[in-house]
TrEMBL record:
This is Bis(monoacylglycero)phosphate synthase CLN5. GO terms for cellular component: lysosomal membrane. The keyword Signal applies. GO terms for molecular function: hydrolase activity, acting on glycosyl bonds; palmitoyl-(protein) hydrolase activity. It catalyses: 2 1-tetradecanoyl-sn-glycero-3-phospho-(1'-sn-glycerol) = 1-tetradecanoyl-sn-glycero-3-phospho-(3'-tetradecanoyl-1'-sn-glycerol) + sn-glycero-3-phospho-(1'-sn-glycerol); 2 1-octadecanoyl-sn-glycero-3-phospho-(1'-sn-glycerol) = 1-octadecanoyl-sn-glycero-3-phospho-(3'-octadecanoyl-1'-sn-glycerol) + sn-glycero-3-phospho-(1'-sn-glycerol); S-hexadecanoyl-L-cysteinyl-[protein] + H2O = L-cysteinyl-[protein] + hexadecanoate + H(+); 2 1-hexadecanoyl-sn-glycero-3-phospho-(1'-sn-glycerol) = 1-hexadecanoyl-sn-glycero-3-phospho-(3'-hexadecanoyl-1'-sn-glycerol) + sn-glycero-3-phospho-(1'-sn-glycerol). Keywords: Glycoprotein, Signal. Belongs to the CLN5 family. Residues 1-34 form the signal peptide.
Amino acid sequence: MWPVALGMGHWRDVLSWLRWLLLLLSMACVSVHTTTDFLQHWPVPYKRFEFRPKNDPYCQAKYTFCPTGYADGSIPVTKNEDIIQVFRLQAPVWEFKYGDLLGHFKIMHDAIGFSSSLTGKNYTAEWYELFQLGNCTFPHLRPNMEEPFWCNQGAACFYEGIDDNHWKSNGTLVPIATMSGAIFNSMAKWLKEDNDTGIYYQTWNVRASPEFNSSVWFDSYDCASFVLRTYQKLFELGATFNRKVQTNYTRLLLYSGEPTYLGNGTMIFGQHGNKSLALDIQKFYILFRPHQSWKELFLSILDIYYKVTMDKMFYFFFNFEYWYLPLKFPYIKVVYDEIPLPS
């Protein structure tokens, strides 16, 4: 039940939460097993696949994915003796639509730029959602379908050119490394394999607390993690980085006690699933549904605030399985942490 009245302190908490909840909503996108049933290693490893599945026709993107990228997903081969300069690229999320608005909250998108000394051509590599961020963060509850439906694929986009104005106007475009054409060609082969086997986007990073060495339950798999693992691969291949350049990345964090494993879709929503748990998960995710009226949106925000701060709970989807998160203060936070370049 909702309390009859809220004091000024509580209202300040509500107003603080509204900022984050409005952001989240604008993106919209068997027996229970516990972690004591098996030896769980943290963080839970991101599951990779043998191939990328075809897109479901139900999943539709408002903005076309990788409109100027190479149609076959290939990356041009360069001469081994070429010298390639590597650039750090960062700009506010949705900068093309809202300018620097989300930059004020340090909500940034990351990419990598490359420049060939032999040809003078520039290239950009980035990794993002096929069907926009909301669909990767929250599912759709479709009529006559018990199980939530996810449109959460993500992929790499490699295209010719670097949009200097986009990255410089409200963000960052700075050289960070040099490498040979041979290293670039090896990176291209690795990037294709990485892209074919890492197929879905994961928005959240789940930790035990804001403390530096706190336990990590789940890592995000997004544009920043793509840049970080590409930098690491380039370093392993022999690229030389300028560690004097400071590099920060945006993370959307949930703070939780040790998660409880609930099961996959069949275990929960199947014919012999857990009907009570299935209903609870449906009730949770319906609060994040897209296309709500202003009245519905307001009521959903209040319900989400209550579930997160009072019930201290969150149903989390990872590796196509569901987990229960016993949330802890400060519950949800956007951070912009420094992660140094590899050395």
